[in-house]
Amino acid sequence: MWHQSFGLLGKSYTHDTTGSFLLGKWLYMPLCSVPLCSAVVDVAIQDYVADVASELTYQNKSPISTEVLFVFPLDPQMSIYSFQACSEDAKVQAMLQDEAQQLHEATGSWENLEYLQDQSRYPGKVFACFLGTLSPGRELVVTLRYVQELSREPDGAARFVLPHTPHPYTQLYAWNCHSSHLPYSLLLTASLQSPRGVANVQANCSLTALIYTAQDHSTAQVSLAGSPPGQHDLELLVYFGDPSAVSAVVEKGNPEAPPGSLLGDPMVLVTLAPSIPEPVPGQHQSGEFIFLLDTTFLECAKDSLLFLLKSLPLGCYFNIYCYEAASMGIYPQSVEYTQDNLTNALWRIPSTGSSLGDTNLLETLRSVYSTPRPRGHARQLFIFMTGLPSDKEAIAAEVCHHRNSHRCFSFYFSEDSAALAIALARETGGEVTYVSSNNSMTAVVLQCLKRALKPAAEVVSLSWTLPRGLEVEVLGGTPQSIFQGQHSLLYAQIHGQAQDTTVAKGVMTLQCSLEGQDVTHTIEFPLCSQGDGRGENPGVEPSIWATVLAVTWLHRPDKCYQEYCELLETKAVTWLCSRAVSQLDKCLEAANNLLGSSAKPNIFRL
Q1: Buried (b) or exposed (e) across 56-70, using 16+ Cβ within 10 A?
Q2: Poorest-confidence range of 122-126, 371-375, 554-558?
Q3: Which residues are CB-neighbours of 172 under 8 A, at least 6 positions away?
Q4: Of 508, 481, 480, 482, which is closest to residue 494 (Cα–Cα)?
Q5: Nearest residue to 292 via CA among 236, 209, 242, 362
Q6: Cβ of 303: how many Cβ atoms within 10 Å?
Q7: When comparing pLDDT for 53 and 225, which is higher?
Q8: DSSP conformational letter for 224
Q9: Integer Rg of the chain from CA
Q10: For the whole model, what pTM was predicted?
Q11: pLDDT reading at 24 higher than 50
């Protein structure tokens, strides 16, 4: 499921012919140039990762042929791994290649491709595909699959938001805005899985009752009942069982991929969320706070900087870098926060007239990363940007390379540096703040400092015990610190062949330090995949299987939602009969076995 989530769309492309793909910044364009008629979405959520398969049907309702451009906004931590578009005249298909880890056309390659830059002031990226011309009255079916890391709410819930493309409620189609009925249909089924058990699901729309598909409640399913919200995003909050400091879920490798490759070997999704208590009042607080600023910032906010520095807690470490004047810090490395060290630092801050005129943020960051972090003190960077550095891509890459060692609080003063500021904060689990002329600089920065002062657990080690012949590779490294209220997702791959096949479990041990006290968490996890909670698919498209499950569930003995969903069911059955009438018998048998029901073939008009 989440094998596909590692840098799949690492570059940005554009091309002028049908079937060409594009990845770039937000563009001023609709999500599709023809209206959406129906969307069938199948979501599989495992802890804090979602695997989404969607089938979108569009129809050209205009009297003339229309050029079709399909656009899909890419949220942070989202990667597309499959794309296909079919009409009566053409078929466009993309495939994931293991080596390049990018989307490629199945029958060709791109030429004259350029990176899309400075297309809009909005941060973010889109995936787009030019699909040629659609004749009047003709339909186009787009099948798209992606994986996404989900945000973790303060109460531990996994938050899933359906993108605008399958639910374009903001699109101004020719429909009655005073009506609550959308001009398209949406069928959504969510399959949920967690070794901690699935406890509850909440949404901002009506859902069917939660169906548990395993006796230990480790897997469950739920579907959209009725219409989606007409004026809002569709959101799901998934609550799992008792929170644990660590959890691990295994996904089997692709049997068609070579052993030892990224897609061929089993993958383990590891969630690290240690319980971190509040600090004891009066106790010295740990932390390393590094401030990176330019002389333009000093001209307009030196008083705010002074107030910020005086608000740091005793017991922490700090340093200041003025990256327009030099790439070195006030001190060679961070020093303990004392009155003498603070007074000395304030005297050594360059004057506003000493700027060399060159914003050298990249070299300053490299200088910061070359200095040792005080043991037991989580590193946090406060980066103030009054303008956009010329080497923004190199800066983002440098911060990403060191993302496990710190987190960034980014402050930007102009729209042109928004994308970079957001990227630095997002890559490191930090925060980004826009400082306008109307904001109180001191108040804004102090609010961020309060959040930065939350305690953190220092990760000492993450160790594994596996059967002889197996070894684990953690992809992307292990974070050095985990802050209160946050969690960390790791991906690890299991290589090799077990010599003793009777041992079906592995052991993972997290050792961390909380306020100087060592804490150890150990869990066992099955080495074989437990599936993704979708149930046993009888070999059909996920959207077809999800719709069969939803219709079959409506015909359980209690029939509590059948009358409510009668119109939606009729539409779903019509769609199934047009797509997979020859496969419905075997799908119904598999659905009855999974749900413990006894629905008859006549529910599909067979």
Answers
A1: bbbbbeeeeebebbb
A2: 122-126
A3: none
A4: 508
A5: 362
A6: 10
A7: 53
A8: B
A9: 27
A10: 0.73
A11: no
Using CA atoms, how far apart are residues 4 and 147, in angstroms rounded to an integer? 7
Residue that has been written with the tokens 């398209």 in this structure: 184
- pLDDT (tens digit, 9 = 90+) per residue, 333-384? 999 999 999 999 988 886 644 444 445 889 999 999 999 999 889 999 999 9
Three-state DSSP class for residue 579: helix
Amino acid at residue number 508 = M
Question: Could you tell me which of 317, 315, 318 has the C-alpha nearest to residue 285?
Answer: 315
For 568, the token pair is 């939606």
Contact 409, 381 (CB under 8 A): yes
Nearest Cα residue to 149 out of 455, 485, 427: 427
Average pLDDT across the chain, whole number = 79
Quick check: 88 pLDDT over 90? no
> What are the tokens at 115?
């990176």
Could you give the angle at the alpha carbon of 535 between the alpha carbons of 532 and 538, nearest 5°? 120
Q: Output the CA–CA distances (angstroms, integers) from residue 401 to 317, 411, 514, 536, 569, in the order listed.
A: 23, 21, 26, 40, 50
The predicted pLDDT at position 27 comes to: 39
The candidate with the shortest Cα–Cα distance to 425, out of 413, 412, 436, 416, is: 412
Cβ 592 vs Cβ 552: under 8 Å: yes
| Strands 36-46, 185-193: pairing kind | parallel
3-state secondary structure of 298: helix
Rounded-to-integer distance, Cα 146 and Cα 398, Å: 27
